[in-house]
Amino acid sequence: MLLGIDVGGTFTDAVVIQDGKVLASAKTPTMHGELLHSIIAVIDKVLGSINRAAIRRVALSTTIVTNALIEGKIDQVALLLLPGPGLNLTGMTPGQPHFLSGCVDHRGREQAAPVKKEVIAFCRELSGTQVAAVVGKFAVRNPAQEQQVAGWVQEYLKPAHITSGAELSGSLNYFRRINSAYYNAAVWRIFTNFAAAIETAIGERGIAAPVYILKADGGTLPLAAAKARPVETIFTGPAASVLGIMALANPEEPAVSLDIGGTSTDIALWQNGVPLLAPGGASVNGYPTAVRSFWLCSVGIGGDSYVRRQDAHLLVGPMRRGPAMASGGTEPTVTDALRVAGLIDYGDETLARQAMVSIADPNQTPEDAAWETLRVATNTICQAIRTMLSEQAARPVYRVEDIVHGEAFTPELVIGVGGAAMGLAPLVAEQLSLPWQVPSGHMVANAIGAASARPTTEITLRADSAEGYYTVPELGIQRTVDKRRFSLADAWTAAETHLAQRAAAGGIDEALPVSERVYEEEFNVIRGFNTIGKIMTCKLQIKPGVLMPVQAGRQDNEQ
Amino acid sequence: MNNKALGLVFFPAFDWAITPSHPEREERLLYTRDQIVEEGLLDLPNIREYRPQLAKIQDVQRVHIGVPNIASLITDAHLVSAGGAITAAEAVMRREVSNAFALVRPPGHHAMRVVHGTRGFCTINMEAIMVEYLRCHYGLNRIAIVDTDVHHGDGTQDIFYHDPDTLFISFHQDGRTLYPGTGAITELGSPSALCSTINIPLPPGTTDDGLHYVLDKLVLPMLDDFQPDIIINSAGQDNHYSDPLANMAITAQGYARLAEKLNADIAVLEGGYSIEDALPYVNTGIILAMAGLDYSRVVEPDIARCPRQSESNTRYIAQLVTQWQDIWSQRDQLRRAAIAKAGDFWQRSRSIYYDDSGIQERQREAVRICPHCQGYHTIATEAEGRSFGVKTAFAAVIPRNSCSTCRSQACDAIHTAKKEGRYDHYLLQDKEQDTFEQF
Predict the structure, then answer these.
(1) C-alpha to C-alpha distance for B50 and A501, rounded to whole angstroms
(2) pLDDT per residue over A87-102, tens digit each?
(3) How far from the centroid of its chain's Cα atoms is residue A554's Cα?
(4) Which of A170, A417, B204, B393 would staple B247 via disulfide (CB 3.0–4.6 Å)?
(5) In this predicted structure, what is the pLDDT of residue A557?
(6) What is residue A246's three-state secondary structure?
(7) Between β-strands A2-7 and A57-61, what pairing exists: parallel, antiparallel or unpaired?
(8) Nearest CA to CA, how far is B28 from chain A (Å)?
(9) How far is it, in rounded angstroms, from Cα A104 to Cα A111?
(10) What's the per-residue H, E or C state across A60-93?
């Protein structure tokens, strides 16, 4: 039995899944500032009489980190940077950066050594700071300087936690790694406290199963392992829904998914059964980071979107003024329009009609007003989808082959989940001339996603056989190789070994069989007219996915 | 510094090489990619990355006369590179960005109007294709091209040699010491376009000081006088002190400051073969400068290797600048005198070597000195190459805004030559009607 919990902005959802079927589900209002209470309340509600000992896995998607960032409840970070030559980062990073001498170049060769005296001086200046981040340019090519400086910081500042940039991401992009590392350190304490409280609370409820936490890329991480990289648990709400879609619908063809909630619709594009990832990573507080995340576009249209007429124009959203009039609210909403148009069958129809009358033109029937509302809402969503498709088509590529023979992404299916999906998703599909699907269980897709999400992890192996070594930044290691013999095949073999190590260390080796190669690059290194080695990059991941497809039952505790 | 919106077309063509160990090979921009991606430049809010479009054969034939046809001489990579330059230019013309940098390969500034093969790593001329595209689609007329590659931009010079509306300025390592050997101060353009070709041959060992002296005293004032609609930078990076194919001493700072002062609307990458020690830093510097960002921290790790400028070079450069200032101040008289001296036609014969293709070409050109337009011109070309023996062609070019006399004489010239039958191919490039015909 799997227990999945999703803490959302408005509701906290939970499901129990057994043998690919939803056994029970529950919903409680989210109490902000009391996330732990919301979680405990929904667990108690969903479990009811279910045997707690039969639960073998608990997975949680939580807004703890997102909220801490929004509310500014984050710690001051000692941010130490080894920037080398390049962009002047003054004023560009969150927090106050402290620049150190010492740098490695694009091939990972040390060009200047870090200076211990500088680090000691900064440690004195920053004395009392509880968390630190050390980030070096090109540390993904050679993490030694980052490690050396982190050692000195440990010795002289003695913080509770140090984040090293290259361990968070093995990809090039110093700017993103700085921002990732900064926020990782900044939320470390609040996350660690939360994790401890959750472990205690779950234990007290007689559940002995391991606890996993959802990440922005839709993968799970054991709670213990997540303590080192809490920044990856941002934006898990939308990720949970996306995973839910994977469990419920499992689209094989290129698709567009819509998670239509109360105030917004999250749009994702799907290829080969997985959603596309945000290029480079997620944005946090307006700063681009290296946190792997689904590429989601959020538009301000949902079931509770406020509908009104302004200067003869009908406007829908993005704000919410409470629930639909059909459900006892005071202002007209999209849900009222859906009710009057006959696309949904819940809520009070008389109240919904009153809502539509209040926004109708003098010469419009309530039905006309409802359909106009839905047209405006549908247009907004379709426009966002078109923008995403043209952004995807405009993505730069770096090979002639990809320009000349690259294929454009063309969706063949619309999938809807969330409260207003049954009403709106078919209208969006109609406008895009595509078939649609709203899987049953879509109302709790988020919790289903959390429950069934598989662990993910990735590693990057970059070998420079001319220099005679390879680096795996996520593991902080550098190994020597045979300059003459080391081949791309050897690089892949080594990458697989290291991925297995990383998975075992994180307690997720169960997911190893689903690893896949995501990126490969091989270039010659030439001196004069002779090839003296090769530069190879191999990226291997355990891809986002679900433990099993899920069929939603009809059993809902909340109703 | 003020942030400026910069459009960046980055196209390293990771699957294209002339040959695997040729300087123009797959990994030429690998380390540059590493540096600009690691810097996070593509995530900066005022830098927008564009995917290059594919140029059309028609775009290429607006500039080039390929023998027997241009399509058979190029690869898809050339069309992507030319398309990248066009994409950069259109981003500027549509005001989506305030300036743009096409960081693309293969390069093009050694490709001349007539093309038999590849010379100086170039087959078609990206900047020229972009310029004629802008004239055709955006109605631009006066255009300045500043070629900052270490090698003389002989291809671009050739294409615009008879065009008084294109100011072509090339500074380069003196042709007596470096490929392609041309680019002397005396190459000024044909009579009707005299002094719209400017060559500034610099001595080996010229540093940032010398370069910026030339820029401040000569290049920038010339641009002020010419008043172009747009400025294009052929941004070769092989003046760098670490370049393996040349002998200059310019740094990343020198290049970035150049980009800042020149304030080009569009820059297009040309050469630069110090792929590990120079290109990552020079490109980062140019991108930051064009985006109005602080580039002062872009300093090569091995900057201590960069030599200082000799006293004799400083003196030589000062004299060269004075000499050019004299010529420039008399440019109108010089042009009138050259036109008067030429009579009805100005003619020249040249030998052109295609080092990458092993082709020797002999070319005879005649330009009509016309009081009403740029004057049509004809080119008789004969090329000899190991792979194909001998190929000959006769071509006529009708310029933009041509007069009716030049137009009919150009057509007559082609028909007469065809009747005489001494060539394999007869080609008419009509820039007025934007057509290209084989007879």
Answers:
(1) 39
(2) 999 999 999 999 999 9
(3) 29
(4) B204
(5) 32
(6) helix
(7) parallel
(8) 10
(9) 5
(10) EECCHHHHHHHCCCCCCEEEEEECCCCCCCCCCC
Contact, B87 vs B101, CB < 8 A? no
Residue A513's φ and ψ, nearest 5 degrees, are -60, -20
For residue B383, CA distances in Å to B353, B387, B393, B397 come to: 9, 11, 9, 19
Name the closest residue on chain A to residue B282, using Cα atoms.
A86
Per the CB < 8 A criterion, the answer to whether A41 and A28 are in contact is yes
Measured CA to CA, the distance from residue A102 to residue B127 in angstroms comes to 40
What angle do helix axes B279-290 and B252-262 make, rounded to 10 degrees? 30
> Which one of A99, A100, A397, A398 would you mutate to disrupt binding with B, by most B Cβ within 10 Å of its Cβ?
A398
For residue A409, the distance in angstroms to the closest alpha carbon of chain B comes to: 15
- Which has the closest alpha carbon to B202: B79, B317, B41? B317
Please give the ipTM for the structure prediction: 0.93
DSSP3 helix / strand / coil % (chain A, rounded to 5)? 35, 25, 35
**Contact state of B54 with A111 under an 8 Å Cβ cutoff:** no
Rounded CA gap, B177 and B44, in Å?
41
CA dihedral sign, ordered A58, A61, A67, A69: positive
Residue B391 CB contacts under 8 Å (≥ 6 apart), including other chains: B67, B68, B116, B382, B383, B384, B385, B424, B425
Largest interatomic CA distance in chain A: 83
Pick the closest to residue A242 from A282, A295, A300, A278 (CA basis). Answer: A295
Residue count of chain A, please give it. Answer: 559
Q: Which residues of A touch B33 (CB under 8 A)?
A: 398
| DSSP output for A338-364 | HHHTTS---S-HHHHHHHHHHH--TT-
The whole-number pLDDT of residue A558 equals 33
pLDDT tens, position by position, B129-167: 999 999 999 999 999 999 999 999 999 999 999 999 999
Interface test with A, best of B25, B29, B33, B39 (most A CBs within 10 A): B39
User: A142-167 burial string, b = 16+ CB within 10 Å, else e?
Assistant: bbbbbbbbbebbeebbebebbbbbbb
Residue A91 backbone class (left: φ over 0; alpha: ψ -120 to 50; beta: rest): left
